[in-house]
Amino acid sequence: MSYEDYLAYLNTGIEDPAKFFQRILLSLVLIGVLLLMSRGLTWLLNNWIDDPKRLQITIGWKRLATLFISLGIIMKLWFTRMESLALVITIIGFVSVLALRGLILDIMAYLYISFREPFDIGDRIEIAGFKGDVLDIDFLQIHLLEVESIISTQQSTGRSLMIPNRKIFEEASHNYSYKSPFIKQDVSILIDFDNDRELAFREAARIAYEVHQEIIEHAEPDDVEAFEKSLAIGNTEKKPSVHILVKGIGFEITVTYFSDYHRLAYNNSRMQLALYDGFQAKNITMPTAQYMQLDMTDHIEIT
Predict the structure, then answer these.
(1) Nearest 5 degrees, angle CA 270-CA 276-CA 282?
(2) Confidence of residue 149 (pLDDT cuts 50, 70, 90)
(3) Does 111 or 262 have the greater pLDDT score?
(4) pLDDT over threshold 80, residue 208
(5) What's the chain's average pLDDT?
(6) Which of 44, 131, 159, 257 fits as disulfide partner to 146, beta carbons 3.0 to 4.6 Å?
């Protein structure tokens, strides 16, 4: 290609200023019309489709179709040579990836969950600040049945949660039943300073061992086997532990033990009540609430 031919190539289609500005105006009008049509179609889809998943997919395809139509019209108006086609295709691909980023991440996260299995149907997990039991996992969302705080009653709230799959890449997630349904639990009780702390320690150890044995005996054999295997891998002790700390107005005795995650609240209550009853039987006293009575009859006169 000679220099003259190159200059002619650069000037192709814009040698007439009137035609050039006409193309700009026409492009702006067409883009405006397409945007209005896209908004109208979105409104119609929101009224026609009730399923959120189908709606999200349909709107994604609608956006993609609008993008291709817009670029096709602009190509027709502005490009007259096939050499520009590769550049346009590259731009289309780049914009498409940006427009469908969330959808692509959700699908990639679904594949990750399917092969890596960080959790499965029936597991109790915490993700994106929500806790619940996994009911279903599809290409776009994780379906949870919400439960209350993991350390409270843990009853179902009845709310169904839909968490985008991509959240597993963006935020930390916790699986309370990964490989084994047992997790560690702490229970504390406060006793007075004037108690025999060695006696309290021995009593707490006895109670913790007995309650822990009952928890293991009532668990499913397969769950106990998986639990013991996970302990062997992590070199962790299965038996409960007891330690004492000085806290405020007394000694804080803490029992650490393993419990089935579905029965954390129940086992927590059992352990606390067993410690209380055992300490009462051994005459180990616990601090009582202190109240201060204020005499409001006196007053200060400010002059």
Answers:
(1) 135
(2) low
(3) 111
(4) yes
(5) 77
(6) 159
How far, in Å, CA of 261 to CA of 132, rounded? 12
pTM value > 0.70: no
| DSSP letter for each residue of the chain | --HHHHHHHHTTTTSSHHHHHHHHHHHHHHHHHHHHHHHHHHHHHHHH---HHHHHHHHHHHHHHHHHHHHHHHHHHH--SGGGHHHHHHHHHHHHHHHTHHHHHHHHHHHHHHHH-SS-TT-EEEETTEEEEEEEE-SSEEEEEEES-TTTT--EEEEEEEEETTHHHHS-EEETTSSSSEEEEEEEEEEETTS-HHHHHHHHHHHHHHHHHHHHHTS-HHHHHHHHHHHHHHT---S-EEEEEEETTEEEEEEEEEEEGGGHHHHHHHHHHHHHHHHHHTT-------------S------
Residue listed under structure tokens 């009952």: 214
* Distance, CA of 217 to CA of 151 (rounded, Å): 22
- Helices 264-281 and 197-217 pack at an angle, to 10 degrees, of 140
Other C-beta atoms closer than 10 Å to the C-beta of 143 total 16
